[in-house]
Structure formats: C-alpha cells, structure tokens
Amino acid sequence: MWRTIRQWFDPREVREIGSTPDYRFSLANERTFLAWLRTGLALIAGGLAVAQFLPQLPVRHLREALAVGLLLLGALVAVRAVDHWARTERAIRLGEELPASRFPAVLALVVGVGALLLMAAVLAGAVRGR
Questions:
Q1: What is the rounded CA–CA span in Å between residue 33 and residue 36?
Q2: Residue ranges of the domains in the chain?
Q3: Residues in domain DUF202 (predicted)?
Q4: Which of 8, 44, 57, 105 has the fewest CB atoms within 10 Å, measured from its CB?
C-alpha cells in the first residue's frame, strides 16, 4: 500500500518502469485524471452548497448527511483518480492491458440512488406541507 501511495508523489518511480510510451497516451491518461479530479471537486462543491444553502428537509439531519456524503464522495473520487492514473501509467509503460475499474459504475449508482432518496425526501416534505 505504501509503495502505491509513494508512486503518486514520485513521478521518477513511474518513469523507471518499462519504456517511454507515445506521449499522446500519457497525456490522455493525464486528461482523464484531471476529469476525475474535476468530478471530485464538483462533488465537494455540491456538498458545501448543500450544507450552506439547502433549507432544512423534513427528515431530521438529512441535509447534513447529504452534505457529508457528497464531501466524502468527492474526497474518494479525488484519491481514486490519482490511484487510477498511476496504475494506468504503469500499464501503458509496461505494454499491459489497462486496469479495469468498476468505480465509474459504482459512482454513478451511488449518485443515482442518492438523488432518488433526496427526491423522496423533498416530495415527502411537500406532501406534509400541504
């Protein structure tokens, strides 16, 4: 585990593995990393927006739970982005298959389920408010 984390911060270690690939592949890998990082930042911004601007919901502490969930998910996406970047760069340099990942599907599922739960809470509040 520590070796993996060390690779995130030491680009020389990544460059010592295998052979130098076509730069277009490394740059594409970096663009993918940056896209994931933007997704993480958007989730963090969403969590802060929920905490600051969303009115209280009918379920006690739902707003806070949603905000914390978005913040944690944003942090997880950012950490996962750098890990995937390092594993992909290593595979490119070694001429191996790119690492498979279930993370995009899991992230989409978590966001979708969270949106449905929030929608149910908002509708419950609207029905109670009548």
A1: 5
A2: 2-129
A3: 24-91
A4: 105
Contacts of 85 (CB under 8 A, 6+ apart): 29, 30, 32, 33
3-class DSSP assignment, residue 109: helix
Q: Reduced to 3 states, what is the DSSP secondary structure of residue 53?
A: helix
**Each residue of 82-106: pLDDT tens digit?**
999 989 998 999 999 999 999 999 9
Query: pLDDT tens for residues 44-94?
Result: 999 999 899 888 877 788 889 989 999 999 999 999 999 999 899 989 999
Whether 97 contacts 91, CB under 8 Å:
yes
Q: What is the pTM of this model?
A: 0.81
111: tokens are 């966001």
Contact criterion met (CB below 8 Å) for 17 and 94: yes
For all residues of the chain together, what is the average pLDDT?
87
108-118 average pLDDT score: 89
Exposure class string for 6-38: b at 16+ Cβ within 10 A, else e:
ebeeeeeebeeeeeeeeeeebeebeeebeebbe
Q: Which pair of structure tokens corresponds to residue 48?
A: 């802060």
